[in-house]
């Protein structure tokens, strides 16, 4: 402190106040020295002010500093405030602030008793506070709502509040109101819990343990990924749900990975215990659909009551082995329910995602999920994240699994509060979960609980954990089960009777044994999960059913009416002049039938007609409103004021919702979210678009584990559409391929549809087909880039009105089938290149003798249609497959067998030739010229060669 300040403080405390008043209205109106003092002070001051409204703690603090200092013997009695006192108070204020910020580092959150290393930031000497100062009185406690006390007393209070069994990370939050609220609530974390709640908590712990012990004794050595050690998750979720229901929640989504899942399914989600035991018994029911899954991946949904008897619908999404991916699916499910059933009211449906410490800190998708919190297209009003931090990941120590201090550090990205809690402290956990609910409902943000616990056994029950964590498991061996630990606490501190608690536990064991006996004696069979509500009304369809024609037609008048509506803009809306010319006016021409409809218009009409029939449409993708190639412009931006307008929403029926979302730059979580949304909103149309098709491989886990296999594993029906721009245009290795071959490799058992269209009417009918049938299947669509506006791909209003979806398109140019000597099968863009070539003089002579047959739907393959088409061409000499992708990519390795069968069944002797690029390590060459040279050679080979050609 400078000499100037000394004299000022000694002579005039009022002056300090005046300076602070000036600083408060304009920090630059005071000198740098004052500024730095007040800046250091301000954080705590703000919190203190909010802690007790209408009280200026600053005034009080200064008053007290004055009183204090005048009482101190060694200072001048004439001064109402002195420099030393003020300096001391500032040091203590900094010390208090340090505890608020870093106190959690010292918290006793580990139930296994490991002490946290001392944090230097919390040493008094770090702030220049010496041993002699310990008995000095300080007012700095006012900053956190405490009274004047000796420094050593304050220090103990700080330890009690910030380094107890709960550590709080609040100070990184930017909003002062939020911070103040959290600190005030946190100060009440040890508030007594009523006896009824304690009893419920005990019941829940006893039930959890009973189930594990029953399975362990009845199904010895069977994998169950027991919850033991992390049992506290169960009452934590119950406490949260009880409070959330009081605040308006009617539904709750709970997502969890394998550990503890069986227990959660039965004890929280309401899956009947006999169903679980029949799964352990393993007798499949005759009518069981598909390949099914291991029991700890199944989901469930039921209506049940919270502790205090409020009704709640609770569901757990199905989950594959891949950790953390289900988080995004759960969020999509939650959002769908909020949108569908409660008109977007986020208070009605809430969600909890449970994580493991290693997975939560290691998996990249966590970051993508977390980042969605406040985004308009994804926001669900806040999610509760509970990390079951059992301090080991399979066999890996935390020091090898993260660089971050905590497994929850990703929470800071969204400025969300984090609480680290010792899982042995169930009463504090209850208070924390009530606080979580209150916070979520007040601030609509995510809330994180780092539940520090342990894992009783190895990664699974047959694993020996002491191979890798011998010391940790010596401690765990002597640790009581959570229900026993809590019973000990209840009997010693809360007058519960030990025998009564034991009787509760024994009753659970006896009841569960009785269920087991029933399952055994009745030889019960595994039953398929039937979803509640919409999805349960839909069928599971076979490949054959998928090939039946779908009714997608609408009257021409209706289509025209909606087409006109799409082009209409409000008078107050000013479109970008360029768009007004090339999009709006062109679309008007299309709507009036003066111009053929391009891809964008046909796509928009699919949405508009569905909305008009009462279906909902949700399209999410990177820049989806405009479309990567500027073809969509479904949402226009006002050129004058930046407001947005989505004309198709004007076509919607009252209850049909439209959401066209420009997404965050994520593929994995973004696609997972739409999957979850599509499962829930089974009747609506849900689409995810890749910026370019190749980016979809960033979501490969979602594609493999959910989209392609969800139905056969879980009987889960959904019709998510993936729009994946695909096609080789000389743009290099990436951006050319959506990896068609990988989708085709995944096709079996009628699991999805993989298509590559060449005509705009096809996108219209295919999108309508998605929701007008009585079953749902994912649709993987290779979408155009260069031919979005090609006249060859354009359609007419009549084709939309009276046409239908075509799995295979015969060559309509061919007047006389008997003249055809060459039949070229292909899919997508290359077929248009072939038509272009046949129009050129060079190939004029081939025009009548070459038929181009487009396989618009590759899977399921319409064998009968293909045979019937080929059979027309009785004089065919050359049959080939043409593709622009390299031989090891595209559809070739999938289609060759299908075509071989088509040829055989058509009674033709030919073999199938291949016309395309050779096998390559990348989908496309990097040099544009090289691309065109190769493309020409492919076309030439296809139109001329009498044998396979690999370029
Ligand atoms: C994405 C993914 N990678 C690897 C695995 C294999 N695996 C299963 S459990 C596990 C450890 C998980 O540790 P943690 O997140 O702490 O949860 P815990 O099992 O300890 O509850 C691993 C690596 C997996 N299931 N998912």
Automatic annotation (TrEMBL):
InterPro entries: 2-oxogl_dehyd_N, 2oxoglutarate_DH_E1, DH_E1, KGD_C_sf, ODO-1/KGD_C, THDP-binding, Transketolase-like_Pyr-bd. GO terms for cellular component: cytosol; oxoglutarate dehydrogenase complex. Residues 597-790 form the Transketolase-like pyrimidine-binding domain. SMART domains: Transket_pyr. GO terms for biological process: tricarboxylic acid cycle. E1 component of the 2-oxoglutarate dehydrogenase (OGDH) complex which catalyzes the decarboxylation of 2-oxoglutarate, the first step in the conversion of 2-oxoglutarate to succinyl-CoA and CO(2). This is oxoglutarate dehydrogenase (succinyl-transferring). Belongs to the alpha-ketoglutarate dehydrogenase family. Its cofactor is thiamine diphosphate. It holds the Pfam family OxoGdeHyase_C. Its EC number is 1.2.4.2. One of its GO terms (molecular function) is oxoglutarate dehydrogenase (succinyl-transferring) activity. It comes from Silvanigrella paludirubra. Keywords: Oxidoreductase, Thiamine pyrophosphate. PANTHER family: 2-OXOADIPATE DEHYDROGENASE COMPLEX COMPONENT E1 (PTHR23152:SF4), 2-OXOGLUTARATE DEHYDROGENASE (PTHR23152). The keyword Nucleus does not apply.
């Amino acid at each position: 402190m400078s000499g100037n300040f000394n004299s000022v403080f000694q002579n005039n405390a009022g002056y300090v106040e005046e300076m602070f008043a000036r600083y408060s209205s304009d920090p630059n109106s005071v000198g740098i020295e004052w500024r730095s003092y007040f800046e250091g002070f301000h954080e705590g001051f703000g919190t203190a002010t909010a802690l007790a409204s209408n009280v200026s703690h600053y005034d009080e603090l200064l008053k007290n500093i004055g009183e204090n200092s005048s009482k101190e013997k060694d200072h001048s009695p004439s001064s109402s405030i002195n420099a030393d006192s003020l300096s001391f108070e500032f040091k203590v204020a900094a010390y208090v602030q340090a505890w608020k910020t870093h106190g959690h580092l010292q918290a006793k959150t580990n139930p296994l008793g490991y002490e946290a290393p001392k944090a230097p930031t919390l040493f008094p000497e770090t702030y220049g506070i010496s041993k002699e100062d310990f008995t000095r009185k300080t007012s700095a406690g006012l900053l956190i709502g405490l009274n004047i006390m000796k420094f050593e007393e304050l220090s103990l209070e700080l330890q009690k509040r910030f380094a107890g069994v709960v550590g709080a990370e609040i100070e990184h939050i930017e909003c002062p109101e939020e911070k103040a609220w959290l600190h005030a609530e946190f100060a009440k974390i040890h508030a007594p819990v009523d006896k009824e709640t304690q009893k419920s908590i005990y019941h829940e712990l006893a039930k959890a343990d009973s189930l594990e012990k029953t399975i362990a004794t009845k199904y010895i050595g069977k994998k169950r990924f027991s919850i033991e050690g992390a049992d506290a998750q169960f009452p934590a979720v119950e406490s949260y749900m009880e409070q959330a229901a009081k605040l308006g929640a009617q539904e709750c989504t709970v997502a969890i990975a394998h550990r503890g899942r069986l227990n959660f399914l039965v004890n929280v989600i309401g899956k009947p215990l006999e169903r679980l035991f029949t799964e352990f018994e393993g007798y499949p029911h005759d009518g069981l659909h598909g390949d099914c899954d291991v029991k700890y991946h199944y989901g469930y949904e039921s209506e049940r009551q919270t502790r205090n008897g409020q009704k709640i619908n609770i569901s757990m999404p199905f989950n594959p082995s891949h950790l953390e991916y289900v988080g995004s699916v759960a969020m999509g499910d939650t959002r769908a329910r909020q949108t569908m059933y409660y008109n977007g009211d986020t208070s009605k449906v809430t969600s909890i995602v449970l994580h493991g410490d290693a997975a939560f800190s290691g998996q990249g998708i966590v970051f993508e999920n977390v980042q969605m919190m406040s985004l308009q297209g994804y926001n669900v009003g806040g999610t509760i994240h509970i990390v079951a931090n059992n301090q080991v990941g399979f066999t890996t120590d935390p020091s090898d699994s993260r660089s971050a201090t905590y497994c929850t550090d990703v929470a800071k990205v969204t400025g969300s509060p984090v609480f680290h809690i010792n899982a042995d402290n169930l009463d504090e956990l209850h208070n924390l979960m009530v606080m979580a609910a209150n916070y979520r409902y007040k601030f609509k943000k995510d809330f994180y609980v780092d539940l520090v616990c342990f894992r009783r056994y190895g990664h699974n029950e047959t694993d020996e954990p002491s191979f890798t964590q011998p010391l940790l498991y010596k401690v765990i061996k002597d640790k009581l089960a959570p229900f026993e630990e809590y019973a000990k606490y209840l009997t010693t501190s809360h007058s519960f009777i030990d025998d009564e608690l034991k009787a509760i536990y024994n009753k659970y064991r006896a009841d569960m044994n009785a269920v087991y006996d029933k399952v055994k004696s009745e030889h019960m069979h595994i039953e398929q999960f039937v979803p509640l509500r919409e999805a349960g009304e839909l069928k599971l369809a076979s490949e054959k059913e998928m090939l039946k024609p779908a009714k997608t037609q609408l009257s021409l008048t209706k289509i025209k009416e909606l087409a006109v509506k799409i082009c209409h803009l409000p008078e107050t809306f000013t479109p970008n002049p360029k768009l007004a010319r090339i999009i709006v006016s062109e679309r008007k021409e299309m709507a009036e039938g003066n111009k053929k409809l391009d891809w964008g218009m046909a796509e928009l009409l699919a949405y508009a007609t569905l909305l008009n029939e009462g279906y909902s449409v949700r399209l999410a993708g990177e820049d989806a409103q405009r479309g990567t190639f500027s073809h969509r412009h479904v949402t226009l931006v006002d050129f004058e004021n930046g407001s947005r307008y989505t004309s198709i929403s004007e076509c919607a029926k009252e209850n049909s919702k439209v959401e066209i979302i420009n997404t965050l730059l994520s593929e994995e979580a973004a696609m997972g979210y739409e999957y979850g949304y599509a499962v829930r909103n089974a009747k609506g149309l849900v689409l995810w678009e890749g910026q370019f098709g190749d980016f979809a491989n960033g979501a490969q886990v979602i594609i493999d584990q959910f989209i392609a296999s969800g139905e056969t594993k879980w009987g889960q029906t959904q019709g998510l559409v993936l729009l994946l721009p695909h096609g080789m245009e000389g743009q290099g290795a990436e951006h050319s391929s959506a990896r068609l071959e990988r989708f085709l490799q995944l096709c079996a058992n009628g699991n999805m549809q993989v298509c590559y269209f060449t005509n705009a009417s096809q996108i219209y009918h295919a999108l309508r087909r998605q929701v007008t049938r009585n079953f749902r299947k994912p649709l993987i669509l290779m979408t155009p880039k260069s031919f979005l506006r090609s006249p060859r791909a354009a359609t007419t209003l009549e084709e939309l009105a009276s046409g239908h979806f075509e799995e295979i398109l015969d060559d309509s140019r061919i007047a006389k089938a008997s003249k055809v000597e060459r039949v070229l099968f292909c899919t997508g863009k290359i077929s248009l290149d072939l038509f272009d070539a046949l129009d050129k003089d060079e190939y004029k002579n081939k025009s009548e003798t070459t038929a181009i047959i487009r396989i618009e739907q590759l899977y399921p393959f319409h064998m009968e249609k293909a045979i019937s088409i080929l059979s027309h061409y009785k004089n065919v000499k050359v049959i080939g497959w043409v593709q622009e992708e390299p031989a090891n990519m595209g559809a070739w390795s999938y289609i060759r067998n299908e075509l071989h069968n088509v040829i055989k069944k058509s009674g033709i002797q030919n073999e199938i030739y291949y016309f395309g690029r050779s096998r390559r390590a990348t989908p496309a060459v990097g040099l544009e010229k090289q691309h065109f040279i190769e493309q020409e050679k492919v076309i030439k080979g296809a139109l001329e060669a009498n044998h396979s050609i690999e370029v």
